[in-house]
Amino acid sequence: MFAEEPVTVLPSLRQRRRAVATREIVDAAERQIAGHGPHALSLRAVARDLGMTVQGLYHYFPNRDALVTALVAKAYDDLADAVTAAVDAAADEPAARRFLAATEGYRRWAVTHVERFQLLYGAPLRHYEAPAEGPTTQAMRRLSMVFQREMFDGFTTAQLAAADTRALSPALQAHLEPLFPHGSETLPPSAAALLLGAWGHMHGMVVLEAFGHTSFIGEHQAEIFRMAMRDLLEDIRRRIPTQPPGTPAAP
Q1: Same structural domain for residues 115 and 169?
Q2: Tens digit of each residue's pLDDT (9 = 90 or more) over 108-122
Q3: Shortest CA distance to 117 belongs to which of 227, 196, 212?
Q4: Based on the domain organization, do 115 and 206 belong to the same domain?
Q5: How sure is the predictor about 33, in pLDDT bands with cuts at 50, 70 and 90?
Q6: What are phi and psi of 181, to 5 degrees?
Q7: pLDDT score at 163
Q8: Is the predicted pLDDT of residue 246 greater than 80, yes or no?
Q9: At what angle do helices 189-210 and 135-152 cross, to 10 degrees?
Q10: Are residues 182 and 106 in the same domain?
Q11: How many structural domains are present in the chain?
Q12: Are the CB atoms for 176 and 189 separated by under 8 Å?
């Protein structure tokens, strides 16, 4: 007997119209953020831009928080896409250069989309709280995985577990243990500490530039950033042993 071919269920006309309307609302909200900043986001202004009533907008987003959640998740996804594209463009390069490409992609997106970057990492929107384990969390994890993969590419779990992070307290080790998936296991606490420290270093420099705090450096900001990221990666790699302790030396 021939196997039955799977049946593809196409979205209904109503579902397609709803998807189009939802995209238009998100696009209008992004335009408002780009023009006035995230704290000026107004459902009334978004509805007016689309020629609809606020009550009509509520058919697609029941409240402001639902729209903000969609905007934050999309911004994280767009940032992750930019970082992934930068890594893909360096696919034939060694892992170190791919990591540096990822940091460059992160910086370029941030300084090009300052208002949306501010939505992610600026002062929190008043009264907004992201849903626990919701789309914003998932989108942020996707971004984190890109950096984790490129930072630790080529190292075994045993090497990462033996990384020199000085002494982590037992409480911190227990907290870090389950945070980052690493294949079928989780990233060792020492490597998780390195990852978080590196992200803080990179992100801090990008925030300073994107929010105008290093404008006195002028056109040299990109060069300063690249130098700092090379030094950061060299320090991380010095902390990871070429062989984990207890490995027999090569004859």
Answers
A1: yes
A2: 999 999 999 999 999
A3: 212
A4: yes
A5: very high
A6: -65, 145
A7: 94
A8: no
A9: 110
A10: yes
A11: 2
A12: yes
Type of residue found at 173: Q
Q: Does 17 score more than 80 pLDDT? A: yes
**77 Cβ contact partners less than 8 Å away, ≥ 6 residues apart:** 139, 142
pLDDT digits (tens, 9 = 90+) for 217-230: 999 999 999 999 99
Please report, to the nearest 10 degrees, the dihedral formed by the alpha carbons of residues 186, 101, 205, 110 taken in order.
-100
Tokens 């941030």: give the residue. Answer: 110
Q: What is the DSSP string of 116-129?
A: HHHHHHSSPPTT--
- Give the tokens for residue 45: 């202004």
Whether residues 92 and 147 fall in one domain: yes
Rounded to 5 degrees, φ, ψ at 41 are -60, 130
Q: Which amino acid is at 144?
A: S
Query: Which residue range is the domain that position 221 belongs to?
Result: 69-123+133-239
Torsion of CA 101, 37, 66, 79, to 10 degrees: -10
Is 35 in the same domain as 145? no
- How big is the chain, counted in residues? 251
Question: Which residue's entry shows tokens 């987003």?
Answer: 61
Q: Which band of pLDDT confidence, cut at 50, 70 and 90, is reported for residue 12?
A: confident
- For 35-67, letters b (16+ CB in 10 Å) and e give eeebeebebebbbebbebeeeebeebbeebeeb
Q: Are residues 30 and 104 in the same domain?
A: no
Beta strands in 143-198 (DSSP E): 181-182, 185-186
CATH number of the domain where residue 56 is located: 1.10.10.60
Q: Write down the residue that tokens 């929190």 correspond to.
A: 124
